[in-house]
Amino acid sequence: MKVKFHGQDVSLSGSVKKIGDMAPEVTLVGKDLSDVKVGGAQGKYQVINIVPSLDTGVCAVQARTFNKKASGIANAVVYVVSMDLPFAQGRFCSTEGIENLVVASDFRNRDFANAYGLKVAEGPLAGVLTRAVIVVDPQGKIVYQEICEEITNEPNYDAPLQSIK
């Protein structure tokens, strides 16, 4: 699959999951270095908010927006996943007042990037996650997915939340 970075095509590595696929369960690293499980059947909805780096303007806006919207969602956990180091994620959350998102880093093994096919494979952002939003139902099935065509554009904030029943 290809996405764009400042209008230039870049490939994603691996096989991108589709709506209806089972969401692979992967272990990421929390901002306090604890294990964070994402995907799989967790008995509640999961909104997985994926960003290249919390240290950029658009990614920060995306995290702040989902943090605000997450406070009103019942029966769901909202994640923000990036390759940022957990220490940087923790500092970002502290500075920005992020309290409603579970922050998880894929820096250690890139298990999330590989399992979901969302790692940028070429160009100046090679190795980071592309911008996307995935919603997983309580049984572990992907019920919504948006992979932003242009990495520098914000995702749709309302559609993933509307997919939660």
Largest sheet: 7 strands, mixed
Helical region count? 4
Strand content: 25-35%
* Average of pLDDT: 92
Give the H and E element order.
Answer: EEEEEHEHEHEEEH
Q: How would you describe this structure to a colleague?
A:
With 165 residues, this protein is an alpha+beta fold. Helices cover 22% and strands 30% of the residues. The strands form two sheets. Strands 4-3-7-6-5-9-10 form a seven-stranded mixed sheet. The termini are far apart.
Q: Topology of this protein?
A:
Layout: E1 2-5, E2 8-13, E3 26-30, E4 35-38, E5 45-50, H1 57-70, E6 76-82, H2 86-96, E7 102-105, H3 111-116, E8 119-120, E9 132-136, E10 142-147, H4 158-162
Parallel strand pairs: 5-6, 6-7
Antiparallel strand pairs: 1-2, 2-8, 3-4, 3-7, 5-9, 9-10
Feature tags:
165 residues; alpha+beta; 7-stranded mixed β-sheet; 3-stranded antiparallel β-sheet; 10 strands; 22% helix
At a glance:
This protein is α+β, with helices and mostly antiparallel strands and 165 residues long. It has 4 helices and 10 strands. Helix 1 links the parallel strand 5 (45-50) and strand 6 (76-82).
